[in-house]
Amino acid sequence: MDKIKAERIIQAGLDRKADFVEIFEEETRNASVSFRDRKVDSATAGTDYGIGIRLVYGTEVLYCHTSNDDEGHIIKLVDNLARSRGIIVRDTSEPTVNLVGRIFENRHKITKDPREIGQDRKLDLIKLADHVARGHSDKIIQVNARAGDVVSSVLICNSEGLWAEDTRTRSRFTVNVTAEAGGEIFTASEAPGTMRGFEFFESLDISHYAKLAAERAVLMLSAGYVKGGKMPVVMGNGFGGVIFHEACGHLLETEAVRRKATPFAGKVGELIAHPSVTAIDDGTIQNAWGSQNIDDEGNPVQKTVLIKDGKLQTYMSDRVGGQETGTGITGSSRRESYQYAPVSRMRNTYIDRGSTPVGAMIGGIDNGLYAKKMGGGSVNPATGEFNFAVEEAYLIRNGKITEPVRGATLIGKGPDILPLISQVGDDLELAAGMCGASSGSVPVMVGQPTIKVDNILVGGR
Amino acid sequence: MIRKAGEQQAVESLNPSDAIDFMCAEARRQGADGFDAVAGESESMGIELFEGKVKSTEISNSRGIGIRLFKDKRPGFAFTEKMSREAIAQTVKDALSHTLLTDPVEMDLPFPETLPDIDLKSFNPELEEVSLDRMKALCLELESLARAADQRIDNIPYLGASRSSGMSMVRNSNGVAYSSRSNVVSAGVGVVALQDGNKKMGVYSNGGRSFSFDPGLMAAKAVERAVELLGAESVPSGSYPVVFSNRVSASLMSMFGSPFFADAVQKGQSRLAGKVGERIAVPMLNITDNPHIPGMPGSHLFDGEGVATSPQEVVRDGVLKTYLYNLESAHKAGVKPMGNGSRGYSGKAGTGFSNYIVDKGDRDLAALLSAFPRCLYITKLEGGSGCSAVSGEISIGAQGFWYEQGARVKPVDKITLSSNYFEMLMGIRGLSNEYSDSFSSMKVPDMLVESMHVAG
Predict the structure, then answer these.
(1) Mean pLDDT of B149-166
(2) Distance in angstroms (rounded) separating the CA atoms of residues A375 and B215
(3) pLDDT surpasses 90 at A94
């Protein structure tokens, strides 16, 4: 969209008495190739395109979106939004806003634009994953592998004169392995991702990830069940960070605070976690899966310390949520696409490095669980009740890791669990995931060093 | 797409009907051996309120078009939300270039056939007149009724209503050309009850094809669902009979749909492989896939690949009768495609149930709750990450009530249930004579399972 058109659309919103008007235009190119059943079963590419317009009256948000970029059509939508508040204006005045391009530092350099590299270059990668996984064991009966990339160009402009453009390039490799024995079937997957171009695939150790997934699928076939109940749990690094993401992260988004739907509302400055816990949400990590240069309101992203030595420091905010809760800008406003109004969301969220050696954590437990690899989870922010799944776990007996046990669900309440994270290791790692909430599904990283939770309910038999 | 100031644009955006015609013509012109194209358009408007005020209003309009084409039996896919001739021609070119990468697939595109003459009642023109003001009035009433219903209601964080309508089209190189449209209105309220520092949430939402919500009933149900769980506690770990309320039985069964898909069977990802004709569940279990029930949200006369749909008995008297097929899996199995292909414009073809129906039993809920001396009555499931359709493993958080001799003793939370889906199907001991009132493509009555492992 050109500036003159953008200024006219913004003016249409201002004429209708909006306090703030924003345009979010997006064109996203997705491309992927996938392998299944020893065949290249799909090669696809596509373009998402659309425009989202947000009118803000006080803290009331009106949002519309369309794939049709015709100016008259867009102004009609703006008019319909305003009419829903009883505001009827027929004449449009000359634009009063002068949009000025803002230049941002591009922290996330891309060396190989996927759009300029043929999809044929992905074929060897997905075939390698299949070859390595099947080679691990004759129990492997199926391998799905996918190499995909997304290049998203966005324009954000608003009635405060902002004109900001950004291009987000992300690549992800997924391998899913199925193993079978004695009528039982298990699958396991690995899915590393970054904010990089094709250079990510070139440097990725695909054999490593294919082998990890294959090993886990086969291991679970022979694993027994943990006896369910409350017990101490040592949670592995990397994707183990899903516990903080669900048990606490979502509860610190101003979108939850403004609805009074979080037990942490009004707790800034208070001790909400064990003093060994420092937690950070950082959108600036170079080329990380959940990073950006600017958030989806056009603010530069920040590194936000959420909890310092157990004390709550701040929430993650978006424009309206920040205004309502008195939280400053953190560059956390995100949305899946033009189809969603932005709200405060996590970026790369992790419990910071501690100092307890992992061996010492395990050594101090007589009966417990070592949850090496975590799956997904969810939370009800209003009650703080969360759950997440463990995909690969081992029993801890008399200070030693012993036999593997099958995946299980772990449940609890955020405010109850945070004080129970009593030990934090020194092996910080982050892992890529997708996070779903009211503004859609966005790429995030979760992370932590290995941690010890003194007591949590483990689903089992 | 981001142009500098002064740059002109005059690109005509086609409507979905013209766009799909143009895409088919382009596919022929560019030399595809065969193809199918799907286009969709949707419009919606909705409103959310908080503490008596409108918090957000959304009006949306989206559309897109996608193609699958074949060259020497090799498939290629592409899609676009830019509906200009230039973008569509490029999309066809992209799909064609993808046929150089894929391996050949054996499958036949369908020919046109006469669709069943059934009025599915998928579209009610009156809904198009439902205004944001009407939705707002409903929400305000819901909120005040919910607040007044019980002093322990502490917060109403979720409150909203919306309506949406959609149109979908499918065309192929054999002359198939079908289109359909549907619309729906929905409304819901989520309340939080507080007692002794403990919070419980209750949600009631529903949808349908008439704007005839009963705010009194909706508010009362949401409040009841929150308040009745206050004071909940865990139960000791052990194995207990479990009754899944019809509020959650469908969502439990929905996590285990894919084992019935021929595609999963053929790819080694279903434990139902080789089980057609065999008993996989207790004799009381009947599962039907029925796309022809008027008014249900999963009803449609043709599927995402342009195949006419037909009802299927999937499980009859506990015996697996058939898998569900799309074009590719049907060809591989040597059976006639039955119309269970699912496909949106941006994805490749999958398989899906239309309306998933578990037949009702002949007992009422009270009879199920008193079938064993003690049992758990589960009304809320938490997450599903610990459940796998491939392995059948079930590990899930749950809330509900403890029953003894058919009488409610106390509310229960902080427990997890553990079992395996394929074992659970053999352990069903009762199905009630009642479905929930939700507007859903799944109908599953209350379900009694003899034993599940409970950790508390």
Answers:
(1) 97
(2) 39
(3) yes
From the number of C-beta atoms within 10 Å of its C-beta (0-12, 13-18, 19+), residue A403 rates as: exposed
Of the candidates B53, B61, B346, the beta carbon closest to that of A66 is on B61
The pair of three-digit structure tokens given for residue A135, joined into one six-digit string: 């080679």
What pLDDT is recorded for position A92?
79
Helix, strand, or coil here: A217? helix
Residue ranges covered by each domain of chain A: 114-151+168-221, 229-458
Q: pLDDT per residue over A330-381, tens digit each?
A: 999 999 999 999 999 999 999 999 999 999 999 999 999 999 999 999 999 8
Q: What is the pLDDT of residues A229-288, one digit of tens each?
A: 999 999 999 999 999 999 999 999 999 999 888 999 999 999 999 999 999 999 999 999
- pTM of this prediction exceeds 0.80: yes
CATH superfamily of B16-98: PmbA/TldD superfamily (3.30.2290.10)
* CATH superfamily of domain region A114-151+168-221: PmbA/TldD superfamily (3.30.2290.10)
Domain with CATH 3.30.2290.10 in chain B: 16-98, 125-168+176-227
Residue B137 forms contact with A (CB below 8 Å)? no
The whole-angstrom separation of Cα B178 and Cα B304 is: 10
Cα–Cα dist B121/B128, whole Å: 15
C-alpha–C-alpha distance, residues A386 and B17, integer Å: 45
Q: Give, in words, the CATH class of B125-168+176-227.
A: alpha beta
Cβ-Cβ contacts under 8 Å, A385 against chain B = 382, 397, 413
Pairing of strands A39-57, A20-36: antiparallel
> What's the gap in Å between the CA of B117 and the closest CA on chain A?
34
Q: What share of chain A is helix, strand, coil (3-state, %, to 5)?
A: 25, 45, 35
Q: What string of H, E and C letters represents the secondary structure of chain B?
A: CCCCCCCCCCCCCCCHHHHHHHHHHHHHHCCCCEEEEEEEEEEEEEEEEECCEEEEEEEEEEEEEEEEEEECCEEEEEEECCCCHHHHHHHHHHHHHHCCCCCCCCCCCCCCCCCCCCCCCCCCHHHHHCCHHHHHHHHHHHHHHHHHHCCCEEEEEEEEEEEEEEEEEEEECCCCEEEEEEEEEEEEEEEEEEECCEEEEEEEEEEECCCCCCHHHHHHHHHHHHHCCCCCECCCCEEEEEEECCCCHHHHHHCCCHHHEHHHHHCCCCCCCCCCCCECCCCCCCEEECCCCCCCCCCCCECCCCCECCCEEEEECCEECCCECCHHHHHHHCCCCCCCEECCCCCCCEECCCCEEECCCCECHHHHHCCCCEEEEEEEEECCCCCCCCCCEEEEEEEEEEEECCEEEEEEEEEEEEEEHHHHHHCEEEEECCCCCCCCCEECCCEEEEEEEEEC
| Confidence band for A320, pLDDT divided at 50, 70 and 90 | very high
B42 to chain A, closest Cα gap in Å: 10
The closest CB to that of B81, out of A50, A61, A384, belongs to: A50
CB contact under 8 A, A48 and B385: no
Q: Which residue of A has its CA nearest to B4?
A: A2
**CB–CB of A459/B395 below 8 Å?**
yes
